[in-house]
């Protein structure tokens, strides 16, 4: 892997911009302030069924929920940001804090491009096409991808247009029930499609949906993340509309249970994390993320917490709730303990002893200190930290992955202290992670012999390109949400200003290449829908921070780690 350059400044660097510090302090927005604005008393009884299920109410035994007064309920709304309600009447176009869409040419252009990407099935919008640049018809950019549609769905929800999101949720749910077969092997019933397209039969004048569950994908890998994004999106829809009737429909309840049964099934695993194949998520090509990738673990954690809010406490739902609670406790401890890396932990790994045997072992995964890459010692700041890319027996992937770390913040898989450290790292390593186009999908890039072995000499994932250290504008919405949740929106605002200088001029590319993200990707499609939607979602969240209640969860008290006395504590 490449080493970190020492010294020197770079265009757009936060570190070299002291003049912005005072402005940033004035603009700092605390996540808890998102609930200060008046909220219509809409669907409160309904919403409690979705929002008030914390782990404390779902411990073993499942005692009946105590009735609370309206005053107490209002107090709890003020205390818990997860109870933010973002009804349709509060979309970005009607709020005083939001910039009117027509007054900003870039935003107007983005909305026009997003609407052009809409896909219709029998007269109803059901999603957005991956890209409008059809330069290579052999590829699948003409399809609706589950993961790609998430930022589009959030933009439409924040804009007060939930119908397309509802249609998408129901159509993908129907596809889940299809028979899934690759060669002679049948996939599990709960697998969600990676994508689908609308096929029009001109002879019969009839439209049908064609789904891809991995049987047509490069590498033939089923999408592990699709089911998680579907559950997360269902909660966002419920939160936005205040209407839990969709989530409570028997079909949606069954769909969630099928997804959860895949993830919570018992096997040979000794860890609470999910074992995955390479290429099963956003990084959908061979990139050495097989095993226990941070992206999947963070999405898994968030989907479990969302499902806990959405499942009905009937006979079937109650059983899954109990299993979710147990898994969340184990998963939160495992991730916070074994995936977290900061300066102290890096020094501990550097000094690890190996070949330890028994339950008292410190080096539980037998990580060989000599496997530490040189770049990580320069990359790690004094203040800051992150969740590493992967941890498995005798293997620790020290790469930084944007999506997994941002979702860790939004789902509260990261503690408040860890969330702050992740944002500290982004500020400290602004040139490397943001550069001239936010945001690096991972850092650093694989190169030379390492690239040959890990990627199989993949010509698309060359150094600082595509998933191998490329810069992806779609990640702006995740950076914006994480920045707002940690009370540091100036980070996202600065990144957004950098992106705004290039995105429209470059026709909304899929990704950028180069160590600083300076060049449009060599195989990047233009008018990539999730680049457009990622920008819109980020802009709308910054204009009205209360919108992040759609994707941000509040920390559950029972998942908080035990408080330890500081080493500096004195009488």
Index terms:
571 residues; alpha+beta; 4-stranded antiparallel β-sheet; 3-stranded antiparallel β-sheet; globular; disordered N terminus
Return the average pLDDT rounded to an integer.
84
How would you write the strand order of the largest sheet?
Answer: 8-9-10-11
Helix content: 40-55%
Report, as a whole number of angstroms, the end-to-end distance.
Answer: 47 Å
- Global Rg: 23 Å
Main beta sheet: strand number and arrangement? 4 strands, antiparallel
The total count of helices amounts to: 20
Percent strand equals 5-15%
Number of strand elements: 13
Low-confidence stretches: 1-29, 35-103, 563-571
**What sort of overall outline do the alpha carbons produce when their principal axes are compared?**
globular
Q: Which class do the helix and strand fractions yield?
A: alpha+beta
- What oligomeric state do these chains adopt? single chain
Protein name: Alkaline/neutral invertase
Family: Belongs to the glycosyl hydrolase 100 family.
Region (Disordered): 1-30
Function: Invertase that cleaves sucrose into glucose and fructose.
SSE layout:
Layout: H1 19-27, H2 44-51, H3 70-79, H4 105-116, E1 118-121, E2 124-128, E3 144-145, H5 146-158, H6 163-176, E4 181-182, E5 185-186, E6 195-201, E7 206-212, H7 225-241, H8 245-248, H9 250-263, H10 294-310, H11 315-339, E8 340-342, H12 343-350, H13 374-379, E9 385-392, E10 395-401, H14 402-411, H15 416-428, H16 430-433, E11 442-443, H17 448-455, H18 476-485, H19 489-500, E12 512-513, E13 519-520, H20 529-543
GO molecular function: endo-alpha-N-acetylgalactosaminidase activity; sucrose alpha-glucosidase activity
Organism: Vigna mungo
Function: Invertase that cleaves sucrose into glucose and fructose.
């Amino acid at each position: 892997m490449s080493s970190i350059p020492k010294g020197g400044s770079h265009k757009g660097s936060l570190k070299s911009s002291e003049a912005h510090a005072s402005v940033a302090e004035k603009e700092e927005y605390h996540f808890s302030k998102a609930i200060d604005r008046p909220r219509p008393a809409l669907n409160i009884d309904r919403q409690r069924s979705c929002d008030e299920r914390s782990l404390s109410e779902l411990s073993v035994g499942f005692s009946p929920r105590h009735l609370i007064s309206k005053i107490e309920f209002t107090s709890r709304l003020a205390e818990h940001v997860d109870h933010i309600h973002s009804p349709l009447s509060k979309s970005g176009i009607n709020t005083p804090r939001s910039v009117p869409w027509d007054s900003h040419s870039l935003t107007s252009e983005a909305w026009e491009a997003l609407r052009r990407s809409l896909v219709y099935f029998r007269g109803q919008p059901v999603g957005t096409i991956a890209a409008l640049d059809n330069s290579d018809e052999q590829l699948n950019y003409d399809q609706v991808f589950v993961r790609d549609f998430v930022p589009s769905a959030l933009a439409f929800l924040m804009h007060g247009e939930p119908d397309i999101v509802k249609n998408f949720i129901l159509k993908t749910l129907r596809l889940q029930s299809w028979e899934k077969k690759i060669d002679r092997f049948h996939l599990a019933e709960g697998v969600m499609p990676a994508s689908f397209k609308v096929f029009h039969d001109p002879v019969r004048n009839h439209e049908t949906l064609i789904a891809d569950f991995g049987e047509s994908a490069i590498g033939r890998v089923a999408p592990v993340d699709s089911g998680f994004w579907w559950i997360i999106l269902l909660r966002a829809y419920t939160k936005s509309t205040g209407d839990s009737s969709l989530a409570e429909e028997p079909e949606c309840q069954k769909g969630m249970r099928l997804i959860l049964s895949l993830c919570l099934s018992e096997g040979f695993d000794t860890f609470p994390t999910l074992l995955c194949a390479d290429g099963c998520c956003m990084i959908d090509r061979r990139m050495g993320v097989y095993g226990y990738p941070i992206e999947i673990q963070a999405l898994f954690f968030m989907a479990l917490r969302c499902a806990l809010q959405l499942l009905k406490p009937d006979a079937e739902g109650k059983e899954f709730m109990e299993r979710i609670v147990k898994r969340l406790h184990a998963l939160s401890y495992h991730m916070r303990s074994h995936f977290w890396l900061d300066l102290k932990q890096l020094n501990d790994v550097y000094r690890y002893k190996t070949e330890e045997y028994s339950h008292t072992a410190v080096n539980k995964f037998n990580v060989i200190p000599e496997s530490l890459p040189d770049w990580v010692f320069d990359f790690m700041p004094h203040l800051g930290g992150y969740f590493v890319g992967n941890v498995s027996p005798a293997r620790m992937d020290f790469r930084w992955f944007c999506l997994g770390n941002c979702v860790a913040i939004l789902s509260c898989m990261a503690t408040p202290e860890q969330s702050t450290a992740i944002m500290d790292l982004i500020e400290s390593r602004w040139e490397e992670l943001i550069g001239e186009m936010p945001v690096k999908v991972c850092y650093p890039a694989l190169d030379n012999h390492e690239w040959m072995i890990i990627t199989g000499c993949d010509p698309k994932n060359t150094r600082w390109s595509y998933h191998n250290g490329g810069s992806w504008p779609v990640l702006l919405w995740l950076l914006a949400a994480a920045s707002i949740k940690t009370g540091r929106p100036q980070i996202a605002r600065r990144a957004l200003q950098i992106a705004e200088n290039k995105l429209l001029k470059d026709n909304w590319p899929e990704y950028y290449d180069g160590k600083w993200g300076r060049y449009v990707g060599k195989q990047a499609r233009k008018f990539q829908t999730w680049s457009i939607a990622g920008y819109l979602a980020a802009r709308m969240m910054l204009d009205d921070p209360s919108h992040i209640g759609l994707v941000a969860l509040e920390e559950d008290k029972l998942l908080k780690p035990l408080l330890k006395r500081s080493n500096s504590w004195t009488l």
